[in-house]
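hiii, so i know i said id send this last week but things got crazy w the move. better late than never?? heres the sequnce for the chain we talked about at the cafe, plus the structure i predicted for it. fair warning i was half asleep when i ran it
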Amino acid sequence: MAGNNRRSIFRRRQAGLTDYRRRLKLLRGRKPRAVVRVSNTRTTCQLVTWAANGDLVTVSKTGSDLVKKHGWPSDGSLKSVPASYLVGFAMGKAAVANGATEAVLDIGLAASSRGGRVYAALKGMVDAGLEIPHSDDVFPDEDRLNGTHMNEGVAKAVESTKKSIEGAY
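okay and structure toks below
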């Protein structure tokens, strides 16, 4: 057929799930990717390396892990700024324990807004000892990371959960 000369589009690109141009830039650096995703219910942080037959997730932590393993309140938010910070901190500690030293931040198609949950997770990873290129002005305020902007109960939960994470690694 003469009019059927269309270029095929990758399925994930067509669905709006992957920006292949940005992904290729990240992969060319040959460093592991610190992937941060914030869903409707929780924050997820993963350390991902490239492999020919598919990406390999070497470390993965979610907001649910905070409740199950580290004493985060079960009625607390799993995607708030303090929870995102703690998920990033737990992932960073686990990655350092597995021998990782550096990574590149991958926020996917999420909006890049200063002081947001994605950058709270990045701050947690950096505080845990991972070397990730960043600018300090994107991080949320310390009051927001520690939960003092919410109430004293959240601030105490952040402190005890962080101590639990440090003790685990």
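btw Strands lie at 33-38, 43-49, 56-62, 104-106. thought thatd interest u
miss u guys!!
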